[in-house]
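Researcher: Checking consistency across runs. Here is Transposase again:
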Amino acid sequence: MGKTADLTTVQKMTIDTLKKEGKTQKVIAKEVGCSQSSVSKHINREAKGRKRCGRKECTSKRDKRALERIVKQNRFKNVGEIHKEWTVAGVSASRSTTHRRMQDMGFSCRIPRVKPLLNKRQRQKRLAWAQDKKDWTAAEWSKVMFSDESKFCISFGNQGPRVWRKTGEAQNPRCLKSSVKFPQSVMVWGAMSSAAVGPLCFLRSRVNAAVYQEVLEHLMLPAADQLYGGDDFIFQHDLAPAHSAKSTSTWFKDHGIPLLDWPANSPDLNPIENLWGIVKRKMRDARPNNAEELKATIKATWALITPEECNRLVDSMPRRIAAAIQAKGAATKY
């Protein structure tokens, strides 16, 4: 006896006729010459207007629209808070039902992406900077030494509140967490070029101009020799107070090192920010017990960064510039 797909047109028509006559599936199968399961599947497939099995939903379309409005009003609320508001709106549903309805709508609980908070003037300056650099080639960007400070914590578990968003909404402004410049009590300074990474410096005190110039003298200059040899290069750093201090500018002039002009609050344009992210992701499973173990883990992970990773990040600069122009100076996905 064949499967449902093997039934001939004549057999299917015969099944339909016998079904209308009120014959049982067992009798129909015997008369048609096929299995009872084939008859059952054919009848179910052809049936129209069948009532849905299972318990009827306790929420209406109107209730679902109300729930979606509540979620979109503040995407950083947890399920309990959303459920409470939905209940106040007159909907009788459990917390688990609330969660299921949100999932049915396509909402997922995700860690929000972080983007710098930019005012109108900063966006205008970023756009002007990007337009000025739009014709730079990858070869020109390879002459730039990118630098930055980053904070590493012993605990990687606390990543802040999560956000409810649907697929494709990662860049939705309502789903983003604005970042502000972190305090200067940063822990690690590093530098990179398109060829490799330079040495790390662990900062023990607040970074003022004097401390920063010591880092430049004892780490940046050796890193430049390591990465560029005797070739010329351009140094990049952001506009942190220690970086933009007059004494720091004088230090660079005295050493004959040109600086890359840089727009304020623009970590998304700096490839070393992505490098810090790579290091932190590689350290995700590490559980250092104290600061010394954390430093050792950072050093070991930093040493694993390959030249290919550095080259790929620096090669992304033309795309970053294009993205900044397209966004009219607003923060980009990088």
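Researcher: Does this match what you'd expect to see?
Model: One thing to look at in this run: The longest helix spans residues 209-228.
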